[in-house]
Design goal:
Helices cover 34% and strands 27% of the residues. The chain is α+β, with helices and mostly antiparallel strands.
């Protein structure tokens, strides 16, 4: 299984992936997707963001990667090429999700490991920051299996949601 950059030709498969995640009652499946008329327009924007062009205000360069099996997208991963203050405090470099039908097969751990290598080789990052809800045990295990080291936790007072922050491959100062 190989993490590959999403292409415009992936629009139909990515739409099926998004539909499957939404059918499982998941929200914000592909961040910023709802700002675009359709999946093709979204993928065009992602291509721009990968090269750092036409970035909306406050958005950093990022790359959308997918894992495919039999021409179906089974997982997605966003790798942000840098952190702004908001991302450094709350979100991190990487966001990922696995299609509900393909979970518990090691896909998330493998793609996270591949993303760390890409981050270092392609974008010169020393390490990557990843966050997850503190009650998301599966995600915590995935991050730890990929070499993550816990840094800190924070809670959002308005929602009482708590998150953990991890670094993989060192920390931002290594």
């Amino acid at each position: 299984m190989q993490l590959v950059l999403a292409q415009l030709s992936d629009a139909e498969a990515l739409q099926r992936y998004e539909n499957a995640c939404k059918a499982a009652q998941e929200s914000d499946v592909l961040p910023f997707r709802l700002q675009y008329a359709d999946m093709s327009a979204f993928l065009k924007a992602q291509s721009d963001w990968h090269t750092g062009t036409n970035l909306p205000k406050g958005i950093v360069s990022s790359s959308l990667y997918v894992i495919k099996q039999n021409d179906e997208i089974v997982a997605t991963l966003v790798l942000r090429h840098e952190l702004n203050a908001y991302l450094r405090k709350y979100i991190g470099h990487i966001g990922y999700r696995v299609h509900p039908a393909y979970r518990r097969q090691g896909i998330a751990t493998e793609m996270l490991k591949q993303a760390v290598v890409l981050a270092k080789q392609e974008f010169g990052l020393r390490a990557v920051m990843v966050s997850c809800r503190d009650d998301n045990i599966a995600s915590k295990k995935t991050i730890l299996r990929a070499g993550g080291c816990w840094e800190s936790s924070y809670c959002i007072p308005e929602t009482n949601e708590c998150y953990d922050i991890f670094w993989i491959g060192g920390n931002e100062y290594d």
